[in-house]
Amino acid sequence: xxxxxxxxxxxxxxxxxxxxxxxxxxxxxxxxxxxxxxxxxxxxxxxxxxxxxxxxxxxxxxxxxxxxxxxxxxxxxxxxxxxxxxxxxxxxxxxxxxxxxxxxxxxxxxxxxxxxxxxxxxxxxxxxxxxxxxxxxxxxxxxxxxxxxxxxxxxxxxxxxxxxxxxxxxxxxxxxxxxxxxxxxxxxxxxxxxxxxxxxxxxxxxxxxxxxxxxxxxxxxxxxxxxxxxxxxxxxxxxxxxxxxxxxxxxxxxxxxxxxxxxxxxxxxxxxxxxxxxxxxxxxxxxxxxxxxxxxxxxxxxxxxxxxxxxxxxxxxxxxxxxxxxxxxxxxxxxxxxxxxxxxxxxxxxxxxxxxxxxxxxxxxxxxxxxxxxxxxxxxxxxxxxxxxxxxxxxxxxxxxxxxxxxxxxxxxxxxxxxxxxxxxxxxxxxxxxxxxxxxxxxxxxxxxxxxxxxxxxxxxxxxxxxxxxxxxxxxxxxxxxxxxxxxxxxxxxxxxxxxxxxxxxxxxx
Length: 510
Ligand code: 6LW
Hints:
The protein is mostly beta strands. The protein is built from one helix and 39 strands.
């Protein structure tokens, strides 16, 4: 069969996978978004359904002060003796911790903290021991650090020690350890999560090493595929399927312009086959690269890759596709089958130190259509194409000091803020329909109210890109409301939104 990469599109970086029962489970980084660590399930590795998030409670996920390079980084999911473990790092508040559950559809435990330097923690269980790996450094520079921990308390039972120094690439990270056949394999990434990203590995005779690097490293990279639209491939995890074949999930991003590269949809989840050679070394992908279209005979032709192109409030959920910024004020958001209502807060959209009245869904393809109907009640309410608090394009309705309403488009790019065009709306306007069309390199804006059409122009996608914004996330399409009474703590009435979102681009799948 033929399948399309990414297998999960939109900002879902740093995938980690495990197999349990008759399904596969996958988690990703979530940075400043709440709830945290999206959790997916699949039966065929190609089609992934989000079943929720791992971190759903403020006590598990303190996000105060977390921006788009803060919060939750790089989780690892493992299944051991009937229990799921998810280990990650809250880089803004607290460091490494793990949570566990015996019911993948239920709640997870409170955090168990582990004190070790670095990011990208992972766990490996064997013979009653729990090994904890992360990236880190010692007197000779970057390395993978490993210690044994108590899986109940997180206490370090051994001193962290360096087990591998990688192959010389910068930013050695994302260590994952496996025991396959007679070897222990240590998978990692180097090159940074950019255009030079690559997956490397080494193997050894014990969990502590010593590890011998694969001579063909990097085992997977698109760094030499200049002009190819899938780039930045790295940060990987391995899984064995039900037929005994091995696969690798990893992140990659789709660049928009072939030569003047940029990307906006964030780092996404890709899948490639892994093939063990008779000598026990393995290869990955197509000649060590990842393709947008992959051919495989390991998955039956009867499996069809689904492509979701229609999202409304009736077929999405607050704790699944929709997320908030930092720790939200739950009483300020009401989710109903047809609409969402936000109580405007006095926290501006550009705030990265507190949680505005904001609810977002990922931009999953570079082409999409978004239509939002917003009630006119808050001081300002609308829709934002949001990369970070400092990079976003907004289409909104704002009350003017004379009590009337204006329709406007705003661009914020760092300290540059520009509002234009602005249209006065007829008195008595009760609701406005806002439309955004994503067309790869630009966003097109228009609106309608009271039977009139308003053209609000286009803005370039490039200025919201990760290359410009300097962040770890991707564009979110979000609804927001800001209230009046600056500095008084007053909250406004609820503003109602309804929405239809249709990502297209590479859909339908092959
Ligand atoms: C993550 C690191 C990385 O911790 O990016 O691509 C960092 N790899 O492993 C944040 O997502």
